Fold each of these.
Amino acid sequence: MIGRTTSETADVQECNMARGRSSARGTAWAIASAFFFSLSSVVGKDLLPALGVSSLLFWRFGLASVVLWAVLLAWSRGDGPNPFDVPRLKLFSLGMVMGVIAMVGFFALERLDASVYIVLVYLYPAFVVIASTALGKPLKAPTVIALVIITVGVALTVPEVFGGVGTISPFGALLAVGQAVLFAAYMILQHRIVPESVDGVVNAGWTTLGAAAVMAPLALGAGLNRPHGAHMLLEVGLFALIPTVAATTCFFRALGHIAPGIMAMIMTLEVALAIAWSALFLGEHVRSIQVLGAAVVIAGVMIAQRASAAAEATVPAGV
């Protein structure tokens, strides 16, 4: 196969820039999303036992939706995008799927040791890459190398797995793998059916609204638990703002620039960052093998980002 000439490569880069796509910007948004998602281990540490799954997710997505729609309506009165001039049913439906994905994850965590859950759910980058390849995206060697390195790194961050974790719930494992499959499918659907013109804030607004619509009847039917006390109210508010409003907005903006497979691999930085926060803010002991695992994840992400930059220079946007 004859390689591209410098002129052809420049034409592809110009085409991608004209469509507003940039690997560098996408990587920056993805890293920001991983950063905000990773803080959920700090700001939401005590919420699940106190509120339960359905109530916690109702408050998380409900409050996030209120904040995002307040921003969108105010922004649209100026020079911001019209949040209604989008495929509303698609975005709302995808938001409902996101609500189901989050709920499946929490139910898995109730049945599994956290270390087992992390290893299983972070199979989703592999599922994204496999599905993207099946749908016609060429599989390049750097992508495979990055994926293997990241998977090894994630496993090293949870050394408890190697020392034995007792009996593993088959149903819990099924839920964790199911969440990984669902999230992989969700990322690919987002990339394929949502127009590139839809702003990340708009997408996040419809997504949280759809997720809240799923959780509302479940939370009310099970008996809605309300946060009590100033500390818990603050924690719920931060959980809605940081790993939901900020994280999802960055997530959707990143997907507008980079392929889902690369995006999924960059998002594994969440594991490395969560280890740092557990040591800095929660006073937890971090083992040297976990630090090594975090470093391996970062190395894999760097390879993935380089693969994304190379693809941007050689493949037209949308391929």
Amino acid sequence: MRRFYRSGILFVAALSAQTARAEVLPVSGVDPALSDAAIDIESIAVSAIEGSQGGAQGFELRDKLRDAQVDGEAWFAVVDADDPKAQAVLSGSVSHASVRDQIDDKEVESCIEKDGDGKCLRKRTTFVPCSKLTVRLYPELVLRTGDGEEVWNYDSRVSDTEEYCEDESSRPTTSGMLDSLNSTLAWQIRRQLAPRDRSLEVRILERRKGLQKPDRGLFKDAVRMTKSDALSACIAFQNLEANNPQHPSLLFNLGVCQEGTGDLDRAQAYYLQVQDILGEKSYIDSALRRVASFKEGQAQIAARQAQIAEETDSLGDSAS
């Protein structure tokens, strides 16, 4: 299997096709896999997982890994464990434990006597027994290459707790909570092993104070334009930069525009300029973290491309 991924994340076409919405701009990128262990693995298998939840977790893992896509293309080919095409095999065990504990009773107040107008004259307090159910999954999973080398392992447990009282018609069950936990665990492992596409809308800044007077109306128009024509809005913001090179709202919005077209270096530079002017702000920190994540995702894709290209060259040399 040979696949190549483009490094551009959100293209100008997406900006120009934006539908009406609030004052936001679309950005998209690739968050990296949380581990580099499987970046050069294209075909993966899940062997029989042992333990009380092995069967359920094996099913979830195959499903999540098969659905892992980057830029619309499958990141892995999920094959059978005995398939010679499998470059790595995920194996191990997943067990579980559950416990019910009593918690404080729930105090329930009810009216036992009313007057003619329906006003409560006497109340009674009763106490309803309550409990909590805690379920935990204990994974011990290992990823090995075809020659048996261990390249990754995972043993972080997942758990959930639900409280309920005896007067409630619906109560949590161990099996129901296990279904949810197995899905959660499989998703965590998928995030460990494969990057993910992420798209979101970033709210722009609208404060005009400090802009050159002739530009304030143009800036307001550009902000309004983001609701229907993001590309034109970004062009309008760009046209205002020369006269307002230190205006934080304008610079931040330009950063979002650059991020939207996949130019992460320029986006980062704009966000850092805004940070120098305004200091630490949560929305700036969020933007910088997001860009750093997208850049790491791009680096992983580039490493995978290089590996595929090297393998392709090697096959060509062997054939000749």
Amino acid sequence: MEPSLPDKKEKYQKRKRSLCLGNEQNQESSQSQYVKKVMSEKTQKRENMKSNSIHLRLLTHTIVLFSLAQILALIVADRIRTLNEMSVTLTGGISLSMFLAYFAIGTILVLLLIKLYHGQALYRILFFLGLCSGLVTVFQMVFPLPISLFVSITFCVGLALLPIIWVHNIAIIISSAGIGALLGMQISWTVAAWLLLILSAYDVVAVYVTGHMVHMARAFIARQASFALIIPESWYGLYEQLGDVRPSGGFLVLGGGDLILPMFLSVAIAPINSNASIGVIVGSLVGLLLNHIVLMRWQRPIPALPMIAVGCLFGFLVGLGM
């Protein structure tokens, strides 16, 4: 028996409604997928903008502090030369082999310390001794030796009582400038250039092959005894305690060697060729910029000295030709 005309019409209407409902559901699903895609792209864009903002802030902060240390080292060296009537370098200075021997002995002793001693006091004592030696050199530009010693010790006591990142960074800038100026005056520019090359190669091996440089850095950071600039991701991080600092945990750490070794070359060549000295500083900043670009792409700690050294030597050669 054939269905009646009303039945056919009702079936047709049901089929039509079913198709419309299916189309609406497909359309809603497509719209939902499109909205999710747009939201995902917007979220990714915001994350990228936030990441770029953080990296720009880190780079700006690092360049400012690094530049201050380099310029202060030149000022200190010039002042010491003026006070002591020195025209080029100190006589009977440090040779390349002597410096490398001292460096090797120091590295071995530090590794033994890390292996055998698990406390904090000895690390802190070594840190403050090194810090104080650089501070005294700088403060002697203004005060007699007894007063310089008193001011330096007061500075160290203040940092011990108030271990905040911005206080630590100021102390590192001043002290590294003093150490860089004093040692830079006792070596020739050729020795300084060779040191940049040799210790850059050592830096790569110590980070990627043996790994002991990373181990040493973590040991000293954990004990609040790191002779390094600590750059937080946010400006508010400058007020954090040194005990809260963790490598790759929202902080960029620029080691003392990365700060001081460029000073050796700029200070050593300054009385011979001021353009070359300025070229060293500018080149080191370019190397620091390139290092930061690589750091952004790799997203893992890398040795900063090799690129800084390449920038220093390139700037040095450009300055010599001017």
Amino acid sequence: MLSFKHLLGKAKNSAQRAAEAVRPAVRYQLAYRTVPLTLLWVLLVLYPNPFNIAISVHRVFSPDIDPLAVESLLVGLPAEPEAIEREVLRRIPYRYDWEVHGMPWFFPRTARVIAQGEGDCKARAVVLASVFERLEIPYRFNSSFVHVWVEYDGKAETVFENPGARFYQQDPETGERFLQVPEVAWRLWFDSTKVGLWDVMPAFRKVLLLAGVTLLVITGIVLRRNTNNGIDNAKAL
């Protein structure tokens, strides 16, 4: 019977041979696939579960309007839509997605927003839309590149909330969906995106992101240089 020590030695030797076999492939990927590997690293740092991106994109066009989830908010609400909006925004304080969900951009379900009691424009919009749906107040659900809001008759326009800024509108009463090329205020878009995606990102995630990108780039440069030197030396023989 083989001893445990002998079996452990064989396993170690097998692991070493496997590592030697895959090492050239790993070196090649690190040397000549720096860009896709860097993009993959960025994606996984920002979204450890990338499926949340697909879920959020789906909810942009099919938001989770849930009248039953907002029953607790109906107590003490005023009657006018504008006053209802002010009260809902007061009860659901604004917080960035990094602060609430631990990712740069996420479109939550209404019940989750009610449970957490805070959220960004997307979260507040689905709650307000759900309240309007429950109270049978007509509304339209709008999305721009940097903002999501609920439109209703008599709503005042702002720099973020106006017909020119939206790229998508959904009217649940008629079922109509509207797409257009929005008027983009690029400076406003950049400033808003920078704050939401970078400024409020946790420091640890920033360090992880930058350290990984730096390491991948340096590793790629070094390995490519060593590979080219090896080729030049082989040609000189």
